[in-house]
UniProtKB/TrEMBL annotation:
PANTHER family linked: CHEMOTAXIS SENSOR HISTIDINE KINASE-RELATED (PTHR22617), CHEMOTAXIS SIGNAL TRANSDUCTION SYSTEM ADAPTOR PROTEIN CHEW (PTHR22617:SF41)
Pfam family, one: CheW
Domain CheW-like: 9-153
InterPro entries, A to Z: CheW, CheW-like_dom_sf, CheW-lke_dom
Protein name stated in the entry: Chemotaxis protein CheW
PROSITE patterns: CHEW
Length: 164
């Protein structure tokens, strides 16, 4: 969904990675969990931290810091896992996204959101829905459906199947 199609006030869950503020459309967020032990799955990419047991379901967990090329962080009392629903070829995939800290749920008006920056052709910024502005701070609004490639999401589904 491009910025031009954001015509109404939308609620976003904001969270921190390093010193940056990110946001997800609240409609994609199922719940936020305190950090729990993660079972590492061999031969997966570094950013694929492993799987957790969520009320009997196997849920893969991705470290968004590593996915975005940031340094791995030590877990703190604020580290959390945001459970999100991602679209994969018309199917909903449930996964966890590790974040340094969840901030708040906020409303952003369409006029508070700008198109993502044009950084050049080599960098893929399709996963950035827009740049929100709130209290003089930029918020990178993610399109969670585009953060992961279909190959990565297929890996997630394989993890769920292997661990089940």
């Amino acid at each position: 969904m491009a910025v031009e199609t954001i015509t109404e006030t939308t609620q976003y869950l904001t969270f921190k990675l390093e010193d940056e503020l990110f946001a997800l459309d609240i409609g994609k967020v199922r719940e936020v969990l305190d950090f729990t032990s993660i079972t590492k799955v061999p031969q997966t990419p570094d950013y694929m931290r492993g799987v957790i047991n969520l009320r009997g379901s196997v849920v893969p967990v991705v470290d968004l810091r590593l996915k975005f090329g940031m340094a791995m962080a030590e877990q703190t009392v604020n580290t959390c896992v945001i459970i999100v629903e991602v679209e994969l070829e018309g199917e909903k995939v449930v996964m966890g996204a590790m974040a340094d800290a969840v901030q708040e749920v906020m409303d952003l008006e369409p006029d508070q959101i700008e198109p993502p920056p044009r950084i050049g052709t080599k960098l893929n910024t399709d996963f950035i829905k827009g740049m929100g502005k709130h209290n003089e701070q930029f918020i990178i609004i993610l399109d969670i459906d585009k953060v992961f490639t279909s190959g990565e999401l297929e890996l997630v589904q394989e993890l769920e199947g292997a661990a089940a």
